[in-house]
């Protein structure tokens, strides 16, 4: 059989780390080859505005609107609205720029008009010029709740407001039992030539996606190879609290600890050179390790990691340029 | 008895016309003499943000934040958020500047935290430096509905979106039957040395205030003199659709038509020189006319009208400076 000329690739994605990885992926694939299944467990409302931070980070990053320095928000945005709200005494702890608020206004209006989040996301993506398909894992309400010594915290209270310093005792996904996959998610997984799990926190970025009923099962029954990229390098997360969270919940903060979480779901895990000693432990979870340089510091390194991942998935070859 | 040195004055107020009149009133009274009872019948939600256009117009005007040219919104505001929303395809028909959105974010957060609109309004007023008391007529949900040939329209759809061109067949105030006066409203009316009805549309600016159960009765049983300023001059409204609306609902578009609507509630009506022939008709409604120049074109004319009104109410004398 000839190699698939326009492969269908599905990427399960969290926020900043996934978005940077996806920059490499889109540069390695033809337009419209990609379906990105995004996390909505960290969605929130600010003054009634519906905000989908992970979807927005992916969208802004892939359409060159992102504030690269922070990794989130819109480049060169102003802060007139939130500064005014704060000056009036509002507790403006979740920072939003004015252009970003404009997107949230559009999203919220459409949601209130009765459109599903997936339809709203597709509209926003089309308006910003995204050629690939970005879809929330579910249109239903799904919220990540962190159980800590100070009680249950919604995701953004844990992450932004309290600076993800609370040891996490348990993670719950409110609504997951009743959440159905958004239209197209299961179909994209079933039809994929390759499935990729981005280097995102397995517990709070990929976890909510896998908690949507049917998605984990679709991955277990996958027809295509599934490749995960380890978000843990040398015992630490490249960004965010993944390492501490893995440890506080009794997992290894290592690529093999992540492989254990993904056992049965992935065929290959891309790990960093510094973790080459983990290879056997990863094989012990039925996962084939691929060892390479996974640090993303510029466009070239993002492309290199994406290419190594897609090669491991069998949808690009070393001869492709 | 000596004249009251710091009179307690209550003004029932709509939006732009009332706000401009109130600029004159505050210049004629000591600080904190004034309680402004504002209309909330034209409140709306935009993308979940709670907006109180009439309260905001009064607040922005009296704290020197108003865009004088338009009469609403914040001076020198930017439009980054709404322009982005519109560029993404949102139907951004109710225009909001970025600083204005900041205020709506603060208001909406506080309302969602369980604070009443009157408390939220007091916070916003204090933060912007308003020394007088601005209070919504009710903390409960009250919405002005215009019945037209095209069906029932909420206020802002009628006024802003459709440019107040639809002939109005009927006006309803949704929620009025169950709406209770906000804390302090009835007390302020009972304790007032003078009550003033600003030159606002009697049907859709003052009407919602009077529709709150108990407020009309409190005015009927007033201990203080009540003076209305006619919003109709020479058969036309100085701003907005009051004249057409009065006619389409079978009222006279004249000061005496307004006096008929206020019969039993007001003792005096201030009318413009051009309407001096209306004096007898106004007396026929049990209302004493005061004829003067009511056109507000600058600070001096606003002060002159306010002073004439407060003199008619007996709380300032021609000898006060």
Briefly characterize the structure.
Two copies of one chain form a homodimer. With 321 residues, chain A is α/β, with parallel strands linked by helices. In chain A, 36% of the residues lie in helices and 18% in strands.
Structure characterization notes:
The two termini of chain A are 21 Å apart. Helix content of chain A is 36%, strand content 18%. Chain A has helices at 16-28, 53-62, 80-87, 98-112, 117-128, 155-161, 185-191, 207-211, 215-220, 242-248, 255-261, 279-283, 299-313; strands spanning 9-13, 34-38, 44-46, 49-51, 133-136, 143-148, 151-154, 170-174, 194-197, 225-229, 232-233, 236-237, 268-272, 288-292. The relative contact order of chain A is 0.15. Chain A contains 13 helices and 14 strands. In chain A, β6 (143-148) and β7 form a beta hairpin. In chain A, the strands form four sheets. Chain A has a seven-stranded parallel β-sheet, with helices on both faces. With 321 residues, the first copy, chain A, is of the alpha/beta class. Chain A binds chain B through residues 45-50, 77-78, 80-92, 98-99, 101-106, 108-110, 112, 123-124, 127-128, and chain B through 45-50, 77-78, 80-92, 98-99, 101-106, 108-110, 112, 123-124, 127-128.
Largest interface: A-B, 37 and 37 residues
Please, how many helices of chain A?
Answer: 13
Considering DSSP H and I runs of 4 or more, what fraction of the residues of chain A is helical? 25-40%
Rounded to an integer in angstroms, the radius of gyration calculated over CA atoms of chain A is: 19 Å
Structural class per helix/strand content of chain A? alpha/beta
Placed side by side, the strands forming the largest sheet of chain A appear as 5-2-1-9-10-13-14
Instruction: Compute the separation of the termini of chain A in Å.
Output: 21 Å
Global geometry of chain A: globular
